[in-house]
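Please, structure for the following, as C-alpha cells.
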Amino acid sequence: MQDIKTSLVLVTTLLASLAHAHSWVEALSLLSPNGSFTGNTGYPRGMILRTTPGFNDTNMQWQLPANAGSQLLDNMPMCRPSQQTSNYTDSSLPKLEAYQGANIALRYQENGHVTTPWSKPGKPEHSGVVYVYGTSQPKEDDTLLGIHGQWTLDGKGGDGRGRLLTSQYFDDGQCYQINIGYISADRQAQFHRVAEAGSFQGANLWCQTDVPLPNDLDVGKDYTLYWVWDWSTMDGSGTVTLPELYTTCMDVTIADTKQVGDTGAVVPDGDSKSVPFVSITNYGEAAIQSVFESLSAAPTVPKVTATVPVNITASISYSVAAALLAKGVSSPAAAAQGASAVPLVLATLALSTHATAGAIPAAGAATAAATADSGAPAATSAASVPPTNPPRSADLGGGGECSVQTVTVTVTSTIPSQPQAHSTGSLARRRILALDDDDDDDDDDVFDS
C-alpha cells in the first residue's frame, strides 16, 4: 500500500470556476448537400496545432479586452497579430476551399464552457453567442468595434464592407469534451462519438458554427471570416458588466463547384435540395441538423438576457472527482467520492453571501461508500478545520473587490487497486464573498500570496 500526499484544489472562486481554457476556431469543413463534412479541412490564419511542441493557448487565443476587468476600446484589433493578414505559410494547414453559396462548419472545442457552465457566476445561458462576419475587403487594422454590432445581415451596416452571416449559440446542443461532469456524461450517451484513426478530435465531440456563404462571391478570390464569441459577464437583469469576447480570423478560397468537386468533395447537383440529411453513425462528422436545415431561411440573432444558475453542488462534486481522477483513481470511484464529499464540504464552508469573521464551524466526519473498478468498496472520510487565513480583501481590477477566506477540508480515501493505493488529500477552497468577475486564467495570480 502506498501513501500519496497531494493538494486537491476545489475552486478558486465562490462558485467554483472550472473552465480554465478558452476557445478558438481550430478547423473549417465544407458541408455536402446532405450535411456531412466533405473535402479537405481548412484552418484559420496562422494556425498552430495543439500538438505542436511547446504549444500554449495564447498561441491562438485572442481575448478582448485582454485584461479582465477592463472595457472594450474602439482601437482594439479584431484579429490577433498573427491573424491580421492572410497568414498561411504552412502548406499542411491551408485555407478552406469552397464554392459560392456553400455551407461550411467552423469547429472549436468547448473547453468546459458547455459541460461545466454553472462554474462561474454571471455567465450567459448557452455559453454565450457566436457571430460570424464576412468580407471580401478585409483590412489589416480592422477593429472589433468597427465590425461587431456594426455590420448587419443585409450588408448595409457600419462601413458597408461586409455583413453578418450568422449568429448562433456557442453551445450547439451536442458538443462536449470528455470529463467527469454530468453534462458531459449525458451527452456522451446521447451523441456518442467513436474516435477514428487520424482524427484530431479523438472521442471528444467538437462544437461548430454552421455558416452559409453568400451566393455572389467572386470565384478565384478569398473571402475573410471573423468569428466572434461573446462570453461577457452579466448582472441579474442581463446587462453586461464586464465584456469578455474571443475572436478567430480566417480566409476561404472561393472556387467554382467543379473545381471543388475535383478535390473529392461532394458538391451540389440539380437535385440537391431534395437530399435528406445524412444518417448519423458517428457524431462529429456532420453539421448540426437543426441548424443546417435552417441556413436557407432568413437568419436571426439570438438574444441572451439570462445567466446560468450556479450549481455549487455540481462544482464541488466535479472538483473533488477531477482531482482524484488526476491522481489515478478510477472514474467510477472518483465520481462516487466527489458526490459523497458534497454534504460535508457544504457544511464546512457554511456557504453564504455575507462575510462572517472568525472560524467557520467544523462539520462532523462523514463516511460514504464508493466502488472501484474491482467492485470492492472504498471508504471516504472527511473532517474540517478552521480557516487557515483570516478574511482579507483582494482587488479584482476595475473597481471590484471581494473578501476571501481559506478553509481546509481533509479527505482520506482508500482505493483498492493494483497495487493498492492509499491517497490523502487536502481540499482547499477560497471563499469569495462577493462576485468574482476576474478571468479564470488569472484567478491564482489574484489570490495567491
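The longest strand covers residues 400-415. The two ends are 35 Å apart (CA to CA).
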